[in-house]
Each structure stands twice: as C-alpha cells, then as structure tokens.
User: Which sequence fits this backbone?
C-alpha cells in the first residue's frame, strides 16, 4: 500500500466535481477553472490564457 491509484482518484474527483457543478453551477466551475490555471502557471511559468 502507499501508492495512490491516480486514475481512480481523478475519476472520483471528477464525479464529485460534477455533482457539485449540478448543485452550484458556474460558481464551482469557475473555482475549478481558476485552480487549473494556477496549476498551469506553476508548471509552465505563464498563464495559458495570455
């Protein structure tokens, strides 16, 4: 044990996110989107939107 099944984890997160999206709509989507942009910023050192 100790090694995380990333695929499984991601699927769980996606399911959770979709449930939240259905409840909260665009607000949650915006949070997830911004989170993705933050990850991209730290990874590539620039904003993918620019």
Assistant:
């Amino acid at each position: 044990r100790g090694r995380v099944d990333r695929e499984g984890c991601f699927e769980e997160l996606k399911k959770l996110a979709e449930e939240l999206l259905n409840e909260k709509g665009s607000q949650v989507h915006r949070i997830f989107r911004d989170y993705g942009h933050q990850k991209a910023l730290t990874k590539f050192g620039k904003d993918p939107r620019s």
About this structure: Residues 6-24 form the longest helix (19 residues). The CA atoms of residues 21 and 29 lie 6 Å apart.
